[in-house]
Write a structure and sequence with these properties.
The complex is a heterodimer. By secondary structure, chain A is of the alpha+beta class. Chain A is about 15% helix and about 30% strand. Chain A contains six helices and 14 strands. The longest helix of chain A is centred in the N-terminal third of the chain and has 11 residues. Chain B is α+β, with helices and mostly antiparallel strands. Chain B is elongated. Chain B has a five-stranded antiparallel beta sheet with strand order 1-3-4-5-2, covered by helices on one side. Chain B has one domain: Roll (Thiol Ester Dehydrase, Chain A). The relative contact order of chain B is 0.23. The chains are: A alpha+beta, B alpha+beta. Chains A and B meet through helix 2, helix 3, helix 4 and strand 2 of A and helix 1, helix 2, helix 4 and strand 2 of B. Strand 2 of chain A pairs antiparallel with strand 2 of chain B.
Chain lengths: ~325, ~160
């Protein structure tokens, strides 16, 4: 993305993209009924006056989660071609210009100041709080747009506040073949690579190609300076100790211990199983390697835990080293 | 004082109705909510989106959903909010007033899957009578929704 594009995006931060605008209809029982029927929500306070009064309320109330529904624009506006020209459309167009043509909502944080009752007329305004740099997500590269929506009643009082985050993303060119979740067998990605989304591939260049080529044959190499014999990882052209460009390799024993680790929960990529343990392991030879731990749950991992080399097929043309606890070796 | 009497009256009436009028004092941090399993039918996903006046095509049109990078239509976030509210209030009872719903979405809810909601009381605020519940909704792909719901519960007669 060009700096100019970034600047144009940044200009939206702090801007009101939806001025205060009332919903098309006041809070009403038919819409509440439609909602609670579809949600299969049998809480009686939404439709049964007597039950609502029995809880100390004046009468029926709307479900709190409906707050946003009262200001939805409805079918006609959704179906109509874009180009209303407001700031929200301008932002959508600008993001589309960057290729971010698809959208999903990712976060909603509602604080409700009071319950809404039939007759209330809700209006909402929305201000952009932040626009993220481009992020790699399971859906595709995209940007998170965070905004604050304020919901007012007919007297101008704030009835709810909602922090709202959407991901505008560039859809991947070819959709994955649909999989039925029920048919997915148990097991790890390594055990059923043919059913998984392809794992993101390493960026291979002239300096590290030897390492990935060896990995494809399931050999874990460590680069060694030919002059001072210092081992190093990740691969690079020049010895950080003595500056020599001459090097050879040694094959790692595969014995290692956990130096550090994190557990990735979000965002998810379809190629991996979650929770995903990303670890720095220290090889017996002394170099460290960023890798995944398998055959172990996050709760079981400990710093200094002894682990041993294993391999995953990361695609038709690549294998990558992973590590599993020593006790499970051979399983 | 007046409020205590009013609360006591409410509690009495709610209990007379046989409803699950959960009292603030009956709830403890660490209490687990009864699990709720929701079959994610195509009809549910479409009907709930339309009930919230969300006509985005990815929530009802499979072909366009695939074109936009999804593998099928998927549940909209208003519905995730609604189902989380239903899950917590069916435990909390009709006297509960929902003060906050804060959610993050992960794996999409696609048709044919099942979402299982679990929750646990994580905090209590005695002054406000507020109870915070952490909520997690899992489908076959992982966590669809994680977050917290805050409800205000009536104080017991002896409070």
């Amino acid at each position: 993305m060009s700096a100019a594009y970034e600047d144009r995006l940044r200009a939206f931060v702090g801007r009101e993209i939806h001025p205060l605008r009332p919903g098309q209809d006041p809070v009403n029982v038919p819409m509440i009924r439609h909602w609670v029927e579809a949600m299969e929500d049998d809480n009686p306070i939404y439709l049964d006056e007597e039950a609502a009064r029995a809880t100390g309320r004046d009468g029926v109330v709307a479900p709190a989660s409906m707050a946003q529904a009262w200001v939805m624009r409805g079918y006609a506006a959704t179906a109509a071609a874009k180009g209303g020209g407001g700031p929200a459309d301008e932002l959508t167009d600008l993001l589309a210009e960057g290729g971010y043509t698809s959208v999903v909502a990712t976060d909603s944080e509602f604080e409700f100041h009071r319950e809404l009752v039939p007759g209330d007329h809700v209006a909402a305004r929305e201000v952009v709080e932040s626009i993220s740099p481009e992020k790699a997500t399971a859906l595709g590269a995209g940007r998170f747009i965070t905004s604050l929506r304020t919901y007012h009643d007919q007297d101008g009082e704030i009835v709810a506040v909602q922090r709202w985050r959407i991901l505008r993303f560039r859809p991947k060119p070819k959709p994955q073949k649909p999989r039925e979740p029920e048919e997915r067998p148990e097991g790890t990605a390594a055990e059923r690579p043919e059913e998984r989304a392809p794992r993101p591939q390493p960026a291979i260049n002239r300096d590290n190609a030897f390492w990935f080529e060896a990995a494809r044959e399931r050999r874990l190499l460590i680069q060694r300076c030919a002059a001072c014999r210092t081992l190093r990882h990740p691969p690079g052209p020049c010895c950080p100790e003595c500056g020599s460009f001459e090097w050879d390799t040694v094959r790692a024993s595969g014995d290692a211990h956990v130096y550090s680790f994190v557990v990735n929960h979000h965002p998810r990529h379809p190629a991996f199983d979650y929770p995903l343990i990303v670890a720095v392991v220290e090889l017996a030879e002394g170099t460290r390697l960023i890798t995944n731990l398998v055959g172990v749950t996050p709760e079981e991992v400990e710093i200094d835990m002894p682990v041993v080399l294993d391999w995953v097929d990361a695609g038709p043309e690549s294998s990558l080293p992973v590590f599993r606890p020593v006790a499970q070796e051979g399983q | 004082m007046t409020e205590t009497i009013a609360n006591a009256a409410v509690n009495h009436t709610v209990r007379q109705l046989g409803g699950p009028g959960r009292m603030y004092d009956e709830v403890a941090v660490g209490d687990r909510l009864p699990e709720l399993s929701i079959p994610l039918t195509r009809t549910l996903i479409v009907a709930t989106a339309i009930a919230g006046r969300d006509y985005q095509d990815v929530h009802h049109d499979p072909e366009l959903a695939v074109e936009r990078g999804s593998r099928d239509i998927f549940m909209n976030i208003l519905t995730s909010n609604g189902l989380v509210e239903r899950f917590v209030t069916r435990w909390a009872g009709p006297a509960a007033v929902v003060a906050a719903i804060r959610i993050r979405l992960g794996a999409p809810n696609y048709p044919g899957d099942t979402m299982v909601l679990t929750g646990e009381v994580t905090a209590k605020d005695d002054a406000e009578g507020r109870v915070e519940v952490s909520v997690r909704g899992e489908n076959a792909l992982g966590a669809h929704v994680t977050g917290t719901v805050v409800v205000r519960l009536p104080k017991g007669e002896n409070a």
